[in-house]
Sequence to fold (160 residues):
Amino acid sequence: MGVWELLLVGLVLLAGLCGVLVPGVPGSWLVWAAVLWWALTVPQPVAWGVLVGATAALLLSQVVRWALPPRRLRESGATPRMAVYAGTGALAGFVLVPVLGAIPGFLGGVYLHERLRLGRHREAMAALGTVMRSGGTGVLVELFTCLLIAAAWVGAVVRG
Fold:
């Protein structure tokens, strides 16, 4: 697979990661489709291993999301700007503290948005709790799974 094809797969992965944060966009399936595309064009066992792992992780994340209450993020006051803050925080946390940093990064992004919007710590913490109860946990589960899959893909590509 050439550099341009790898770049396109990476862009589809990035679009999927962003799509997780946008309601109505099948972000996790875009991530899975990018890994499938890569695995079909790279005849190496590691590619198939990443695809099988991605499939299992996405199925598990879907089961967890179905077990959680339905998303009602709009009623909680979640905005697209909050999604940007949460996604940026999750990505920064994932990079700074590999893998597990995505969770506090996501929560920190939502808190920062609410703190800037509301101005006080107590109200921001209350808003963070409301957002997480209203469906933020489902978004976090899906985003965390997609970040794991993207990291596995990057690791496999770099490993060669």
